[in-house]
Design brief:
Layout (H helix, E strand, L loop, with lengths): L16 H24 L42 H5 L1 E3 L5 E3 L9 H14 L1 H4 L23 H5 L2 H10 L13 H18 L15 H7 L56
Antiparallel strand pairs: 1-2
Helix pairs in contact: 3-7, 6-7
Length: about 280
């Protein structure tokens, strides 16, 4: 005969109210854990909805991830409205570039000190501290540098030095990556001040100012009298400069090629409106 009920020894014991609440909590915790596990199996963290350079995108109608730039917009810090400040040249009436004996901003003592600092760091190895072209590496075999005090350099406009620092000249490389435009102008201003100092006469000294000879200054600093004499290139050095190659440009000369390429430069400032 079959029994219609379970054997009493296999029946589960009845739960109390506390046990029922605990069972419900365990069940809810397990359900939440399964839900979180299921959500974590999605690929959203792997396939993130983001823009990847040089790839397409389904977000836009044209299927391009990189958006076209808005017309007539300029990145911050790249306006460069004053082209003379950034190029050192203006466009002449004949279409060729022209250098000007003009600084784009007032020259103060702070500007000259900054120019002196940058000049002593980057220019003196070739041009020396006084700019006579007999720097330390020139005395050791490097190609002779330009003497900033000869008639040719004295006659050049101040923007010429900015242009040379920016683009290089002959055997001189450019220093546009080492010097900002403002620092290049500061160096150009200091070169002009250095030229004035080396060509100064007693008449240029303000009245009442005591003037000492270089030999006296050398003696006061316990230096030999010859220290104040003009520098000369030694007859023999550790290395000798190679002969000049005109195809590569020669020292103190422009690089090979057209020395005056025709360029078009936007005006530095808008032309004034004529009064009616």
């Amino acid at each position: 005969m079959q029994a219609n009920h379970l054997n009493p020894q296999w029946q589960l014991p009845s739960l109390t109210d506390g046990g029922k609440r605990l069972a419900r909590r365990v069940t809810m915790t397990a359900a939440m854990a399964l839900a979180l596990l299921a959500a974590g199996c999605r690929q959203d963290m792997h396939n993130q909805p983001k823009m990847i350079p040089q790839r397409g995108s389904d977000m836009f109608a044209d299927q391009r991830g990189a958006r076209p730039q808005v017309l007539n917009t300029v990145a911050r810090g790249q306006l460069h409205a004053d082209s003379y400040f950034y190029t050192g040249v203006v466009q002449g009436a004949n279409g060729y570039r022209e250098e000007r004996d003009l600084m784009p901003f007032p020259v103060t003592m702070e500007v000259l000190k900054r120019g002196q600092e940058r000049f002593n760091i980057y220019c003196t190895p070739c041009h020396s501290r006084v700019g006579n072209g007999l720097g330390e590496i020139v005395q050791r075999g490097y190609k002779p540098a330009a003497n900033l005090h000869d008639q040719v350099r004295m006659a050049q406009p101040v923007s010429h030095y900015f242009y040379v620092i920016t683009h290089g000249y002959g055997a001189m490389p450019d220093y546009s990556s080492q010097l900002t435009p403002a620092d290049r102008w500061a160096v150009a201003a200091y070169i002009r001040a250095l030229q004035l100092s080396q060509a100064a006469t007693a008449q240029d000294v303000p009245a009442g100012t005591q003037v000492k000879a270089l030999s006296e200054e050398a003696a006061e600093q316990d230096l030999p009298a010859s220290y104040a004499q003009p520098w000369t290139l030694p007859a023999a050095t550790l290395a000798q400069a190679l002969p000049s190659d005109a195809k590569q440009g020669t020292p103190a000369m422009a690089p090979a090629g057209n020395p005056n390429p025709k360029i078009v430069i936007p005006p530095s400032k808008p032309a004034p409106v004529a009064a009616k």
